[in-house]
């Protein structure tokens, strides 16, 4: 029976959009790992996309072989997807971290665990030179808790100031890529949405010393949404036979988000056993996320191996929150390196049918802490296990990272991420000649 290409394409689009509409907040249904560094800006920017890219140290921009498509560079869709196949990738992750800090009265530490859906991506061809993508990805994650105890004050006693935050931003996107010969260009159009909640609590811990002891809370909730755009380009030069040198670049425009902020203050007074509320009407405003430029290069023998490196620079000085800018935010950059030994489905050895990946990264983050820039580094590795009688893979990846240094008086964060994804490749657009 002949297959109607237009009806199948409509079915893919309907399935993708239906899935996204059913999971609009799923990427933040469970809070991320507890981290004090997620309190800045709109939260901690997500450090990786799918499990494969994470396992290769985060490289993504300068890739051009089949299977290399990713939203970091929309130009990769054209070469990453063949004309007769539809690709789908869904990933989950589990993160564990440990925080350590040196205080005058000793060391303190804390551990946390979080996990959930990490990415949902569809890729499909329109024609030989035009490919599309539909995806749902996290943008930022916010989950922090910090506490400060004051010295004892006459008639007041000791007080505690507690700061908490939660939430994050996600984006649903529609990507396009065109190509001619070795050159590919692409664009992503995305809808960014999410909610950020912050809470500050001042507590009087010894109410026998205060006339009106108790607790005061100040709570804000900001709902945000807006549109974003990314542009990308790749050039894949064939050196000889199946050896390629690819260079790529992408640019994400600064993103204007429209916000609706609700504020509420609450006081609880022990002497009169009463509670006072001070609600505030929702206030509209704007939040500006920074622009990002990325560049990448890779050397590849098709079907055998690939090695590559990426560089990215983020203009965090552009960040704006309801008209307010922050002096402590600095522009940030990162360097990523990675490699993959590709799987050979026809190999006699079962070990050679598996793909092997390794990588690492270094990042100078946007925060200055006690006069020192906050730095992070990490290493990663992973495998791609083939699914029998198909071109699909089950990807498993590990990433270890560290942010901050105790020697510089900072909070040190060590974390481990475990990612698992299913990457499916299905041949759909073939018309059989006979029933």
Compile the SSE list and pairings.
Blueprint: H1 5-22, E1 44-45, H2 51-55, H3 76-80, E2 85-103, E3 106-127, E4 130-149, E5 159-180, E6 183-204, E7 214-240, E8 243-252, E9 255-269, E10 274-289, E11 292-301, E12 305-314, E13 320-321, E14 332-341, E15 355-369, E16 372-386, E17 393-403, E18 412-427
Please, what is the average pLDDT? 85
- Sum up the overall morphology in one term: elongated
Strand order of the largest sheet: 2-3-4-5-6-7-8-11-12-14-15-16-17-18
Work out the helicity level: under 10%
Poorly predicted regions are: 1-26
Per DSSP, the total helix count is: 3
Task: Compute the CA-based radius of gyration.
Answer: 25 Å
- Gap from first CA to last CA: 5 Å
Which structural class fits the helix and strand makeup? mainly beta
Number of strands: 18
DSSP strand (E) fraction? Answer: over 45%
| Biggest beta sheet attributes | 14 strands, antiparallel, barrel
Would you list the SSEs in sequence order as H and E? HEHHEEEEEEEEEEEEEEEEE
Can you offer a commentary on this structure?
The protein has 435 residues and is mainly beta. The chain is 6% helix and 61% strand. The protein is built from three helices and 18 strands. A 14-stranded antiparallel beta barrel has the order 2-3-4-5-6-7-8-11-12-14-15-16-17-18. The model is unreliable at 1-26 (pLDDT under 50).
């Amino acid at each position: 029976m002949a297959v109607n290409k237009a009806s199948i394409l409509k079915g893919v689009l309907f399935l993708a959009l239906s899935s996204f509409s059913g999971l609009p907040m799923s990427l933040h249904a469970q809070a991320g790992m507890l981290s004090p560094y997620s309190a800045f800006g709109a939260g901690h920017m997500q450090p990786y996309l799918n499990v494969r890219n994470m396992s290769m140290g985060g490289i993504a921009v300068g890739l051009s072989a089949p299977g290399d498509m990713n939203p970091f560079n929309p130009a990769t869709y054209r070469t990453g997807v063949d004309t007769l196949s539809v690709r789908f990738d869904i990933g989950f992750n589990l993160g564990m971290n440990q925080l350590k800090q040196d205080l005058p009265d000793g060391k303190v530490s804390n551990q946390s665990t979080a996990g959930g859906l990490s990415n949902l991506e569809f890729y499909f061809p329109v024609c030989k030179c035009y490919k599309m993508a539909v995806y749902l990805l996290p943008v930022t994650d916010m989950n922090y808790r910090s506490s400060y105890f004051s010295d004892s004050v006459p008639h007041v006693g000791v007080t505690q100031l507690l700061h908490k935050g939660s939430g994050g931003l996600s984006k649903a996107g529609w990507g396009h890529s065109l190509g001619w010969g070795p050159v590919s260009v692409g664009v992503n159009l995305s809808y960014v949405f999410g909610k950020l909640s912050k809470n500050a609590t001042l507590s009087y811990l010894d109410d026998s010393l205060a006339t009106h002891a108790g607790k005061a809370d100040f709570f804000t909730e900001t709902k945000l949404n807006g549109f974003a755009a990314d542009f990308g380009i790749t050039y894949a030069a064939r050196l000889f036979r199946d050896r390629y040198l690819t260079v790529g670049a992408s640019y994400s425009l600064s993103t204007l988000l429209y916000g609706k902020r609700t504020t509420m203050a609450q006081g609880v007074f022990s002497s009169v056993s009463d509670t006072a509320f001070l609600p505030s009407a929702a206030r509209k405003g704007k939040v500006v996320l920074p622009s990002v430029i990325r560049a990448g290069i890779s050397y590849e023998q098709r079907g055998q191996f690939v090695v590559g490196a990426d560089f990215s620079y983020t203009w965090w000085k552009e960040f704006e929150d309801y008209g307010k800018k922050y002096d402590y935010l600095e522009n940030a950059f990162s360097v990523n390196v990675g490699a993959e030994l590709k799987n050979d489905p026809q190999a006699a050895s079962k070990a050679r049918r598996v793909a092997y990946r390794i990588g690492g990264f270094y990042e100078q983050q946007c925060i200055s802490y006690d006069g020192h820039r906050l730095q992070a580094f990490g290493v990663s590795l992973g495998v791609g296990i083939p699914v029998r009688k198909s071109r699909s893979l089950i990807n498993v990846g590990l990433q270890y990272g560290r942010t901050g240094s105790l020697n510089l008086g900072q909070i040190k964060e060590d974390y481990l991420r475990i990612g698992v994804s299913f990457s499916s490749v299905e041949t759909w657009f073939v018309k059989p000649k006979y029933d």
